[in-house]
Amino acid sequence: MSRYPLRIAGSVLGALTAAVSGLVGSGLFTADQGNAVTGVITGVLTLLATFGVVVSAEKRVTPLIDPRNQAGEPLAPVSVPEQRKPLDAEQRSA
Which of 4, 35, 68, 81 has the fewest C-beta atoms lying within 10 Å of its C-beta? Predict the structure, then answer.
């Protein structure tokens, strides 16, 4: 996985858009077909870039449920300390 998913997505988007513009300029695509293909490419790459950001960010965020370090060891104590029980009437008077 790349460290810069948006940079890669932008590069791919630029290359594909340029290719579509070339096809429209050469007459192989009409202008409407070129716009449609460019819209589809932009939509797909936007989704892929979003998933790339999510995947790269997940590695840098500590989860709130069952947090662990890189070695897999828990960051918080596993056992919950015992709660103190209320004193009985006999224990309060003593």
Answer: 81
Residue-by-residue DSSP string for the chain: --S-HHHHHHHHHHHHHHHHHHHHHHTSS-HHHHHHHHHHHHHHHHHHHHHHHHHHHHTTS--SSS-B-TTS-BSS-SSPPPPPPPPPHHHHH-
Contact between 12 and 38 (Cβ < 8 Å): no
Give the type of residue at 76. A
Tokens 């202008």 identify what position? 31
